[in-house]
Design a protein that fits this description.
The protein is an alpha/beta fold and 194 residues long. It has helices at 12-22, 41-48, 64-77, 94-99, 120-126, 162-193; strands at residues 2-6, 29-35, 52-55, 82-85, 104-108, 131-138, 148-155. It is globular, with a radius of gyration of 16 Å. It catalyses: N(1)-(5-phospho-beta-D-ribosyl)glycinamide + (6R)-10-formyltetrahydrofolate = N(2)-formyl-N(1)-(5-phospho-beta-D-ribosyl)glycinamide + (6S)-5,6,7,8-tetrahydrofolate + H(+).
């Protein structure tokens, strides 16, 4: 199954997903990486791994509808069947949601519905939560809402700070995301391989 990854930033999840699928450790082929941020580090990581990239800046378009219509053109050109959000810090609008209905998933660094939105790690620390975690869910029109596919808990120790907790979360994300992608691709392609 042909996959696209959408990411806005450093792209450690994107890099990990590309590597895991290229090595055959997770099913699926990452054929396109899209970033909404100019020169986001994820773009370099993806092209070094031989994956096509698209830097698509929303402010260059008249409105969100035009931006997403262009994204769909790029996705269609690359024959993308499923979209993985990995640190894509933007709501998916109705145009893209409809085109890829039930075929977009997101990863978020908290146990949703707790701490949605920006900097979930800081939110958990400021709330003095005893645990947080990672959630992977189908995407709907809300911010970090939509049916949950998988969650994993992480204990927050008294001496944890933003750096240490981010490290723990990333380690879990890098295990959980390829695992879930592998399951989704296996389920969706089961019929085709029988
Ligand atoms: C990840 O922790 C991901 O869960 C989070 O952004 C980070 C991206 O890291 N996503 C969200 O907060 C979505 N609301 P990465 O660029 O190193 O993969």
């Amino acid at each position: 199954m042909r996959l696209a990854i959408f990411a806005s930033g450093s792209g450690t999840n994107a890099e990990n997903l590309i590597q895991q699928t290229q090595k055959g450790l997770a099913k699926g082929d990452v054929v396109l990486v899209v970033s909404d941020k100019r020169q986001a580090p994820v773009l370099k990581k993806a092209s070094e791994l031989g994956v096509e990239t698209a830097e698509v800046i929303p402010s260059s378009f008249e409105d969100k509808q035009a931006y997403e219509t262009y994204l769909i053109e790029r996705l269609n050109a690359a024959k993308v069947e499923f979209i993985l959000l990995a640190g894509y810090m933007r709501l998916i609008g109705p145009v893209l949601l409809q085109a890829y209905e039930g075929r977009i998933v997101n990863i978020h660094p908290s146990l949703l519905p707790h701490f949605p939105g920006l900097d979930a790690v800081r939110q958990a620390l400021e709330a003095k939560a005893k645990e947080t975690g990672v959630t992977i869910h189908y995407v709907d029109a809300g911010m970090d809402t939509g049916p949950v596919i998988a969650q994993e808990k992480i204990a927050i120790e008294l001496d944890d700070d933003h750096v240490s907790l981010t490290k723990k979360i990333q380690a879990v994300e890098h295990q959980l995301y390829p695992h879930v992608v592998n399951q989704i691709v296996a389920e969706k392609t089961r019929g085709e391989n029988e």
